[in-house]
Automatic annotation (TrEMBL):
<protein>
    <submittedName>
        <fullName>ArsR family transcriptional regulator</fullName>
    </submittedName>
</protein>
<dbReference type="Pfam" id="PF01638">
    <property type="entry name" value="HxlR"/>
</dbReference>
<dbReference type="InterPro" id="IPR036390">
    <property type="entry name" value="WH_DNA-bd_sf"/>
</dbReference>
<feature type="domain" description="HTH hxlR-type">
    <location>
        <begin position="1"/>
        <end position="73"/>
    </location>
</feature>
<dbReference type="InterPro" id="IPR002577">
    <property type="entry name" value="HTH_HxlR"/>
</dbReference>
<keyword id="KW-0804">Transcription</keyword>
<keyword id="KW-0805">Transcription regulation</keyword>
<keyword id="KW-0238">DNA-binding</keyword>
<dbReference type="InterPro" id="IPR036388">
    <property type="entry name" value="WH-like_DNA-bd_sf"/>
</dbReference>
């Protein structure tokens, strides 16, 4: 789907709400709005690189949601387009190939971190260390 009417039909939401959401996603750089018909003017919404980069996040959230539903309540499944086999996303480190796990992943300040960020990270470390005791 890339056109307003396709989104509206699929989502079943009011046009004004859809227009506001698409504008927000476009303003945030996830979609690019492209003219596909001049008379009348009609636009399609095409994923940008930023939008394509969000795809794994969306798939992970979708999978997480399904994992926490009883099997009989799962309305949609994520499958491989070529084989029809179920997909099971996994977040891995591109450098090491290892899966991310809470126990071996921490936050550290980045180059734009100010004193507030340093303090927040220190507080989170102290909070998590309290669970190890």
């Amino acid at each position: 789907m890339s056109r307003f009417d396709e989104f509206q039909k699929s989502l079943g939401i009011a046009p004004n709400i859809l227009a506001r959401r698409l504008k927000h996603l476009t303003d945030e750089g996830l979609f690019e709005r492209r003219l596909y018909n001049e008379r009348p003017p009609r636009y399609e919404y095409v994923l940008t690189e930023k939008g394509r980069n969000f795809f794994p996040v969306l798939m992970a959230l979708f999978t997480w949601g399904n994992q926490h539903l009883p099997a009989e309540e799962v309305a949609m499944r994520l499958v491989d387009a070529h084989t029809g086999e179920d997909r099971d996303p996994l977040l891995i480190d591109r450098v090491t190939g290892r899966a991310f796990q809470p126990e071996d992943t921490i936050l550290v300040p980045g180059p734009a971190a100010d004193d507030t960020v340093h303090e927040r990270i220190a507080q989170m470390k102290a909070w998590f260390l309290g669970f190890d005791a």
